[in-house]
Structure formats: structure tokens, C-alpha cells
């Protein structure tokens, strides 16, 4: 991925006060990097929180990456009580995709991957069903079939952990129909992205599309979010909706829902891989 | 409203079985009416429910309206166990608008009304605050200030009933911030339309825009619905959403929400006045 | 395709006058068919044109399909000067896809096809480049590589005609980058669907995305249309747009454009296969 | 407008090279201003153009506004060959609205104005028809009726210039149906905003809605743009579309078009008043 070789991105969160932008850009400039994109956002100039994303070019940087980070950690970060992180394009992020039987989200990701539109290496696909093995391997990507035995979810999670821990940077639940334990989730903080349907109003319980149909909703939607222990309550990354009418059967609603899901999940994954998402408590700041 | 003078609309709900369309169109044709629009929908050809809306021209009708209805009631309706209703454009529907202090929905309706885009006579505006009196009277529409005394909502509802009962066909809650009693609602079955904000996910409790902001939703929405006794649970007529990002303050979200509310409520009111909405249990069939 | 076995669809165009719906539905009813969907539209009740689409179930039809058509042709059609056509679900439509190198539209159609969402048999894919051969054959669909020699387009069109004429009902140009001759087009009247980019304002000449970028448009779009001899001027079937800003590079605009193209073309193809499109002069009536 | 009292905005255009953000933010920080929003965009890090918008708080600024500007002009601007402008919230922009008979755009702007959503003083409304005088004066805004005599447009333009020149910062053409001369336009460079309908494809000549209807377009749109001498060719500020189908009469299309026009024009005007638009040749960079 040549277009990433010389790129780095700095994400910052800190209390807002005067001088942050000046300090950070000055520091980077003085080390020979060229800032190409700067996005910042403050919840409030007085007493609010400040968020910033900088993308910069490193070919003329006058020190090594570790030295830059050391200097930043000593000179800039403490002055503003910053939480910060620099990622380097040269360190390609590795992604694992978890999937069950529905293949629409998986296929969209694989297709984008093949066309070079995802800045990642898809390291593996894991499924609790063997069905999609051939489709995945046609892309030259390892496929692992890890069934979930009723009453012994722990074993399958353990097997997945062994495959993934330390080996992937992002876990995408591309319609993986198993609920992950809080323990499993804790191994990948802010590293698991899920997609699920959303309705106005929300429907709880089984078969939400049937409920939506019976309620006569005029919109159906989907939400991509980080996974936290509490089910479907993680920070929202992206949402969208499509119009429906009484003419949409449940089947047609589901088709539309799948179209939403694959687009929305793909966007959320792209933004993650391009370091565009900053977590702020239970919400996300997305610098699209 | 000259364009309505010769128009009538027939709405039908019945169990689906073969021959409904043929029978109804035949009947109308044999009485000299010219069908200009026919919309129908069946939940299932076998054992489903059937819904139909016909708009027709009456100038060459060979019998009077009462005679037509009598014939229909005797010849067609029983054969198919129909619930049905004919409305005549010449009988202009009368509308009452209930409003509190926010004027965005009211202003949109008044503006459309003035331009001849609402097939109704706005018979009155009622408010629990005196603020909008002047704005309403500038349109030549009677304004009634009926305050709601704490602990005695009954008195104000009684006053409103006296003004409206038998005198209006539609009650529009254009951001009327009082909860109407089940008793009041029962005087206007499927005749009260309300607008309220909607979010993915839904937020209960006070200040939902603040909750939406704090949750970092990427969409805000609004829903127009019929009012039933259970709060905000009535059949949905229309919904829409707008995109927001972290850059939207709560204030900006509310502005956007108001833009949604006025458009969505106006559409729902138009559809009601044009007899485009059929209630089917707790959902609506809208023949847009 | 079992869900199509018992379905037939009747499309009608004629001058509007009273009694059309009654006559047609009566006729069908008297022959034991059950109308499940009826859409009609009139440009004007007086002196306008009338369009109707009926979908009906044939299991209890009391005569054969040819007999039904003969009766309709003799009894109903002449009375109203109808142009009409009945298609039967049991006669699966056959589709040829023409493609060059861009695969996004092709992949979307193949993927929908595999999932059973297109009511057709994809009989062949033809390309002027060999690149996509493997992708197509993985679906078990014949792939024909027919290069276009400079200055001798006639030979390739002749080769395509031999493969397709009488053997396909629909030709989809899924980003086929050759201009078809008027002669070729005349073999498939209202049977060729193309997709192309659309902008506000329109840009003529080379590299329209660059022009759109330089003009700073805020929307990019795409249009699916029937192919007629005059380039890109055929009747519009479907259109959509996506928002862009100055932040979208030409590359990103093209990605978004491809997403639009695949969705819009897929919808147009679905509607064609479901007999939802009626041509009215140079415009389409689409009964979605 | 208290919320504007302490705000200033700096807009910058220059060739991109390293150090711009650092220099500018450093300069401002050293003078005690607090940057609350910074948006920047570069067409290309190497040899491209750089655009930046900063919003900052001035209460703790250590020098006067003129002194700040003088210092910036001497120390920062020349180093980067900047075109730049600082506007101060305390200097409320004055707006003139030009209108003919259609009132939808005017009403929207007046309504937003009354609610405090436009950061401007509407100094006057000018019309070539007397019809809207009463509506405008109800808001306490001066209304000037300046008819346009056939063959003597010059006189009316001269009368308008006398009213507006040096007295307004922005001229909004809210469906003003007269073509302004190049000479008139040259008095208000990048200060006149117009709204007009847009279609895919574009239609030239009279009655574009009829043409769109006859062509069967599936989308109608509108564009807000700066006015330059060449008609409707000025830089685009904002665009949007709405879906239509064959069911939309020309009348209904126009209603929808008016809804688009009022929203899009209002957005463009808001962005202008908040200094969010930078002109880059014939395109706009809008920092929404």
C-alpha cells in the first residue's frame, strides 16, 4: 500500500485551553513533517474537551518515529494533559472478520479489499459455520471454522482469542450472530466493530423486521458501533436509513436492510482504518 | 377550492378475495363516474387484507351521492365484508390546530394554507399560551387562548371540546405540549395527528436532544402519527431523518429537528386531507 | 424460480376514457384469475393517456394463456385502442450483460443473481476485454470475449448479435465502454439498459469527474436509461445522487459514483425483469 | 446579536507549503486569542492550494483589531503569499433581499431572521413588483418597489445601486426574476447569491419543469450559487435534489422545487454570513 508509506496520523484528546493547535503544529513543523490534514473540534472553548486529528507526511522528518514520540510525550503532551496516539501508514493494520451465514457484509468488505479500498490486511475470516469457506479462500484469505457449542461458548471464544490476540488490530463483526462475552470483548477495547439493524421506534425481542412491518414504520435503518460488554449499547460510529412503505414485504425490508448494513459497516471500517474515529466517553467523534 | 368540487374518494378495507376491483370499478362505471386514480394493496392474495383508494369525478354521475352510497352499501359492500367511506371534495374538511409556544409547525401550515396547498378550512387555532395570537389572526383565523391550569386539565379539555366537537374534522397537534386525556382523544378517533422527535436509538425521559447529543447519534428524526390514548404509540403516518455529526450542538440539532417536524407534519396533514391514509390495525397504509 | 410460476403481468397503454379499469378487471375476473396488484396512472382524465400494470395469479384461470390473450385482443383491447402485453412468470427472462473492465456493476448483478434476487437467467456475459472471464465463470455463466477492433466495430457487433439475437430478452450495459451503433440498437428495442454518470450541471466531453471536481459540484449522480440510437438520450428509468464536498478527491468521487451506479443499475434491471416499466414516448412510467 | 460580539473569523488562501498552520496559530496564540474552530483543506501537499478558516475569541486579545491585522499583514501573510480576510462578529453584516412575486424564499429568510437564526441585519427588501410590500413591512423591514421598465433596465439597476451600494454586504436574489447586467454585478463581487432550479439532465429554454416532466426525470434539484456576469454559471455554493415519479404533475414538481429552493438558499445565506465560504477560482470551498 504505497500511498500509506509516508503517512502518519496523530489523534489527540485533552481539556480545551488556548494554545493547543499552535503548540502541536509548531512541534511537528520544527521536526520537518508536513501537515496535510488537520481536523479539530471542541465541545466548548471554556472548560470543554478538545479533539484533534492530524495527518502528516514523514519523508523529511528530522528524527526517528520513536524519538518524535518521546519528544512529544515530554514536551507537548503533559502541558495539555493529552491522551494521544500516533499511527504510521507503514504499519498496515490487520483485520479479522467474524461472520455467521449471512454473507452480504463479508462480500462487500472482501470486494472493497480486492479493489484496494481498505487500508488493511485482512488476516483471517472466522465463522461459526463452514458455509462461506470457499468464498473467502477464493480471495486467498485464511478461513477458520470455529463452531459454537451450546452451553460452551467459552471454548470457541478461547479458540478465537488464540488465533487473533496480538495478531489483529481490528475485529469486524460482519453479521456474526453470537453474543460475545464481556471477557472476550475486554481483550479488544475499541477494536471490535459491529453492525445491527435500527428502527424508529426501536423494537426489542425476536424478529424486529416483523415488528417493524407490523408497526408500519416508514424508515428502516442500521447502526455500526463499537462493541462493549453491554449488548448493542456501544458508541455509535455510523447510521443510515432507507424509506419503506406498506408495499415492502418483510422480505423486501430485509433486503433493503442488508444493503444498508453493508454500506454502513464498510464506512465504519474504512474510518477506523484511516484513524478517523476518536472515542469520547460513550460517543464518537468521527473526522470524516 | 374549485379543484375539489367534482372529486370524490372511496376508501375500502376488506378481506382479500377475487373480484373486488372488478366489482367496485364496475359499480362506479355503471353509475357514470370516471375513476381517475386507483391504488390498491393486499397483504396477501390468500387470506390477507385488501385496501383500496379510488378517486373519481362526479359530474356525470347518474344518481345523487346518498343514492350512490345506499346502492354501494346494499350491492357491493356486504359481498366483500367491506369497511368503506366516501368523502366528497365539495365538503371541505375543517381543521383545528393546537399549538403551544414553538411556532415552526404552525407557521408552515399557515403558509401552505395561504398558498392554497392544503385542502381544508383552518377553522381555528387553539393554544395554552397567548403568544401566537397576533400571528394567527393576521391570517384571518380565529385564535382561542385556553390556558391549562395545573391539576385541572379537565377544564381546558372541556373548553376545547366545546369549540371543536362536531365543528372540525381534523385536529393537528402542531407542537402542543400538553398530554391529552384518553377521554379527550376518544372524541376524535383517527382524527388527531401529532408530531414528535424520533431517534435511533429511542431516548425516554427529559431532554431527548441532550441525550442524543451525549450518545453521539448520527441521525435525528421525527414522526407524525395518529394520537391514541397511549402516549406517542399511535399509528405512524410519516417519518424522516437528517444527518448530524459531533459538530452539531444541541441547539443546531433542535433547529434541524424543527425543520424535519414542519415538513413531516405538513405531509401527514396533506395526506389526511386528501384521504390518502387508511388505518389497518395499528399501522397505516398511505397511498401517497 | 418457484415464486414466479403462477404469476402473470399485464401492461396496458391507451387513451384515457371511462370504464377501462372496470372492463379489464371484469374480463380477468370472469376468467378466474386473481388480481394481486393493480397500478394505474393517467396523465389527464380528459384526453390524457392511461397506463396500467396488473399482476395476477393464474392457477384458477379457466382458459389457456393463448386463449386468454386472444379473447383480450378481441373483446377488450380494440374498445380502448390499447397497446398491451402479458408476460408470464413461468417464461423466465434471459439476460445478457455487456461489460468492459470496470467490474462494480457486474459484480453487483452477479451477487444479486446468486442470492435469487433477480428474476432472470443470466445467459451470458460478453466483454471487449478478457479480464473478467474468471470472475464470471466462477458463477457458472458463459463468458464471451469479443474484442472491438479499431475501425471495425461492425464485426464485433455482428458477433454479439449472433450470440444474443433471439436468445436474450434484456441486454444490460454494465459499464460497457463502447458506443453501440444505431443498427445494433434497433435489434433490441427497449431491451437495452445502460448506466452513466450524471451531474448538476451536466458536463460534456472527456473526464466528467474532473470537470465536476473543478466546478465544485456538491452532488454527483448516475442515471439508468434505455438505450436508443442517440447517445445517452434514452428514456430515464432511475436516477440518484450522493453528496460531495471539496474534500472529495476525483478518486473518491469516482468511488462514490461507482456505488451509485451499481445500486441504480440493479434497481433498473429488477424493475425491467418484474415488468414494472412502461415506455410512454420518451419517458418511462415506473410502477415501483 | 450577543453571541457574535467576541468572535472573529480569519479566512486564508495561499499556495500550500509546510508551516502554514503552525505560523498562523502561533501568531494568534501569541496575541492572546483563543482559536475555537480551525478548518483547513489542501488540494495537494505538493504544489497545491491551501485554504483555512479559523474562528477565534477576541476578549483577551492583547492588541487592537487594526494592530492585529497590520502585524499579520507584515509578519505572516507575505511569507506564504496569502490572500486573507478577518471579519468581526461585532460588525453585523447587512443584507438586501431582491424578490419578484414568488415569496417562498423570502418568507423562509424572514422567518429565520425573526427567530435569530441569521447572523445579519436585513437592511431592505427590493422588488420589481409591489405585491409583497405588506408581508415585508410586517417584519419592520423597509420595502422598496423598483419596477423594471421594458428596455430600460439601467434605470432600475441605478435605483437599486443607490439604495444598496456601500450599505449592504450581501445581496440575496430570492427568486428575483430579472437578469442583472454585468455592470451591476461588478459592484458586488462575490456578494450576490442566487437560487435556481437544476435538473439531470439540464434543460435550457423556457419552462424547464415542463421539460423535466416530459423527459420523465426521477430527480429535481436546485442550486445556490454566486452571481457572475455569465448567467447561472457562477460558483456553486449548495445543491440538493428531491425524488419525483410519473405521479408528480408539473404543479407538484414546482411545489417540491420551491421547498428545495427555500432550504438551499437559506443554507447558502447562513454559510455566507458565518464566513464559511472561500472562493477558489470558479469553485467554492465551504467549511460547513
From TrEMBL, chains A, B, C, D:
GO biological process: 'de novo' IMP biosynthetic process; one-carbon metabolic process
Pfam families: ACT (PF01842), Formyl_trans_N (PF00551)
Keywords per UniProt: Hydrolase, One-carbon metabolism, Purine biosynthesis
Active site (UniProt): 232
Pathway given in the UniProt record: Purine metabolism; IMP biosynthesis via de novo pathway; formate from 10-formyl-5,6,7,8-tetrahydrofolate: step 1/1
ACT domain boundaries: 9-87
One Gene Ontology MF term: formyltetrahydrofolate deformylase activity
Catalyzed chemical reaction(s): (6R)-10-formyltetrahydrofolate + H2O = (6S)-5,6,7,8-tetrahydrofolate + formate + H(+)
The protein's Enzyme Commission number: 3.5.1.10
Family note: Belongs to the PurU family.
Function noted in UniProt: Catalyzes the hydrolysis of 10-formyltetrahydrofolate (formyl-FH4) to formate and tetrahydrofolate (FH4).
NCBIfam families: PRK06027.1, PurU
HAMAP family in UniProt: PurU
Protein name: Formyltetrahydrofolate deformylase
Gene assigned in the entry: purU
